[in-house]
Amino acid sequence: MRDPDPEEPERDPGRETIRRLRVSSSVIETVILSTIVAAPLAFGCVDRLAVSLLEATGFGLCLIALFRRQAAPAPVHLMIGLGIMIAIGLAQLCSPVLPDAPRFTEIFTADAQATQEALLLWSSLGCLAWCATRALRDAAAARRMAWAFFLAASAVAIVGLAHKAVGARALYGVRPIPSAASPFGPYYNRDHAASIIGMGLCVGAAIFRSRMRLIKIDAFQTLPLAQIAQQAGIFLLLWVCAAGLWVCASRGAFVALAAAGCALVALTATGLPDRLHRWMLYLAVAVVVGLGALTIRRNLVENRRPGAKIDASAANRISFFRSGMRMLADAPYLGWGLGTFPSTFSAYEESSIYGLAEHAHNDWLEWTVQGGLPALLGWAWLILATIFAGARTWRDARSSEMRSLLGGVLAASLFFSAHCVVDFPAQIPANAAVFLLLLGWLAAAPAWAHKQRPQEHVDVQWDTLRGSAAGVLCVLTLLAAKPAAAGWFSASTLPRQQDRRAERLTRAWLWDRRPSRLNRLAYHYLQAGDAAPKQGAASWRRGLQYATLATREEPLNPDYLFMTGALLWRLERKADATELIQRARTLRSLKPKPPEI
């Protein structure tokens, strides 16, 4: 047996573990690229199952990237903005109150379940953005991610145009479309599809411009047919995106696209004489102000003229803004709680609004209502600081290709930020994920803007902080995966196994304690009682227990009030049932017919 060499350093088991756990950056990059393309096509990830998978992907990928022995640029601006909003949500969870309870002057949340879900979602999206900075180590990786943004938008536009061409009445031909929806492609709302298409259009134009330098005719007048064919394909996809944006007919997207272009000129116009540069800035500001003034005049002034045809969409948004400002006046500094807007807005909704308003149609206002002024500052810092840092990188970049791509991603980020003024694209999980990955792309730009060689791996020590972070990520991954398991339990009952339906629904609620699952259990027992009149009273009483619990969680939710009232009516408690149903109607949150009683 060889004697140990006194000069040989002792092996560290922790560092050996890190080496074995080392994962290639290509794995992280592949997952990120797949998320960029798949998330918008999965109905925007608005379903609970899709949200759960997106969250589990973010946390699981961050857990893998945690063991990467790599020096990567730290997305400081991105993490500070997300950290502020997450800290606000954690503080709000410490003081949950009912929406109709007396309001606190300190920080609180009116819906603890909704705040917990919002925290889980935005934490996972922050993990995705951080992982993007770990995967983007060179210009080739940046180029591939830019292509993923462009192809995702093109796919949404192609699906939407195909649906319009064949007159499809269901998403992908299989999912029914609600009567009040205005779908396009895989999205239930055309404005949200326009948000993705607009961002992809900006990035696609940058890709097209960055490749123009490849088309060079040599001394023998030989045409580079391969490059010309590729440029023709990109040009065709750009026209497809433009057609999709036009068919979406989103006026907010059109105005945001023009404003983003003007702001991009103001941010990146360099290398010009001072006088010309100054006049270009003045022109950009004038165009943005002019577009805003025309929009306000059309929506506020002309609609008030006697006999004028009022634009319903603009009138509804103005009503939402007024109601949101009243909410903000009641909790101006610390907000109502992240994710609580749908459950608290009904008490402030004006009587002219038809249907349930789940968002303010202004992400800047909605963040302020939910988290107060700190959340507004965090959201503004998250976006503006990252955009300005990307603009500085654009100015310093020596590669013309990278400058083109940086300009396109900057334009896409500005477009999304402007679109948030008149709509709620940031509340759609897939759109928010794509946007934060765009910001992560900008945060990582200093590492490859000059096309320098990627940095070498550096050794890291296994310490308590890294181990604690890994443990937290494991717990968050399990929490994110639980709703997916609950959805499987809820949907896995066959038609001939209706006797096991209640057991499956109860198990789903144990995995995901959302009030909507309690309401579904109550509806199951209501149907069971109607199907078996002899045992109806027992089923209705059991359903009333679940409906009461759901109503206690969200006392301003009209669905739960109607369900409780329907069960009370069947149990011959008609006075109580009438009171609950009248209360739901008074809230004016839901205008369709109530359940049959």
What characteristic shape results from the CA principal axes? Answer: globular
Radius of gyration: 27 Å
**Could you name the ranges where pLDDT drops below 50 across 5 or more consecutive residues?**
1-22, 456-462, 588-597
For the largest beta-sheet, the strand count, sense and barrel status come to: 2 strands, antiparallel
SS-based class = mainly alpha
- Spell out the helices and strands N to C: HHHHHHEEHHHHHHHHHHHHHHH
Q: How many β strands by DSSP?
A: 2
Spatial sequence of strands, sheet with the most strands:
1-2
- Indicate the percent of residues in helices: 55-70%
Give the N-to-C terminal Cα separation.
Answer: 87 Å
Strand content: under 5%
Treating each run of at least 4 consecutive H or I residues as one helix, how many helices? Answer: 21
> pLDDT average, as an integer?
78
Characteristic terms for this protein:
597 residues; 21 helices; 66% helix; globular
How would you describe this structure to a colleague?
With 597 residues, this protein is mainly alpha-helical. It is 66% helix and 1% strand. The chain has 21 helices and two strands. Strands 1-2 form a two-stranded antiparallel sheet. It is globular and about 80 Å long.
Compact summary:
The protein has 21 helices and two strands. By secondary structure, it is mainly alpha-helical. The chain has helices spanning 13-20, 25-41, 48-65, 76-93, 112-135, 139-166, 190-210, 225-248, 251-268, 274-301, 312-330, 341-344, 363-396, 400-419, 429-443, 464-491, 501-511, 515-531, 536-553, 558-570, 574-587; strands spanning 170-171, 175-176.
